[in-house]
Write a structure and sequence with these properties.
Blueprint (H helix, E strand, L loop, with lengths): L4 E6 L3 H11 L5 E7 L2 H9 L5 E4 L8 H11 L4 E6 L4 H10 L3 E4 L4 H12 L4 E2 L3 H14 L4 H6 L6 H11 L4 H8 L3 H15 L4 H11 L2
Parallel strand pairs: 1-2, 1-3, 3-4, 4-5, 5-6
Protein name: DNA-binding response regulator
Keywords: DNA-binding, Phosphoprotein
GO molecular function, one term: DNA binding
């Protein structure tokens, strides 16, 4: 990425577009290169190389937000994705983390928090707003409380990094380390390290342990 952060905004509310443009216009290290009401418009800008970071509302009219995020993570591994949430409930945060977002910021947070999140994401870090700590705790307690989607329960562990969660999700889907490495343009060693790190955090030693855990969560 260049020193000037190119931001694309995907939101169906014009007032959000106006407010974010006004906020970022006074900053020297970032610029809004486009505002988009639809995913196809945002996707075209991404394909043209006009966006380093996509700031988006995950609630979309014409497409599933999490599905759109997953497709972006697969096709554009360098793109950073920051999600704006109006009401950060546990279920929504869980789904978005599983989809592979790099950061989540609440719409009720100060705009300065959004700026901080953008800088953190472009530096290779991740960001979750202060409200997310309670949400993550809720995810873990709900996972222990009763039957839910086994994959979502496994992927909800807050200590998993986004890339560890991403690799784990694809492993659950049946992809080998080689296939995952080819898909994201990473080395076999990098993907294998991420997979093993996820296994350690989950207390797993092998693929067999992984699928036993999924079966256990499914009961």
């Amino acid at each position: 990425m260049s020193s000037l952060i190119k931001i694309g905004v995907l939101d169906e509310q014009e007032v959000v577009h106006f407010g974010l443009r006004a906020c970022f216009s006074v900053l020297s290290d970032m610029v809004v290169t486009g505002v988009h009401f639809r995913t196809d418009s945002a996707l075209h800008a991404i394909e043209q190389g006009d966006i380093d970071l996509l700031l988006m509302d995950p609630v979309l009219k014409h497409q599933s937000g999490p599905d759109f995020i997953r497709s972006l993570r697969i096709r554009y591994s360098e793109l950073r994705i920051l999600v704006f949430l109006t009401d950060p409930c546990a279920a929504t945060v869980n789904i978005l983390l599983s989809a592979g977002v790099h950061g989540i910021v609440g719409k009720r947070q100060p705009l300065g928090d959004c700026v901080q999140a953008i800088r953190m994401l472009t530096a290779g870090q991740h960001y979750c707003g202060p409200d997310m700590a309670a949400v993550e705790a809720s995810i873990m307690s709900s996972a222990a409380a009763g039957p839910h989607n086994p994959e979502a329960m496994l992927l909800s562990l807050p200590t998993l990094s986004v890339r560890e969660r991403e690799v784990l999700r694809l492993c659950i889907g049946g992809l080998t380390v080689t296939c995952i490495a080819e898909r994201f343009g990473r080395s076999l060693k990098t993907v294998s390290t991420q997979k093993q790190a996820a296994y350690r955090k989950l207390g797993l030693k092998s693929d067999m342990d992984l699928f036993r855990r999924l079966a256990l969560y499914g009961h």
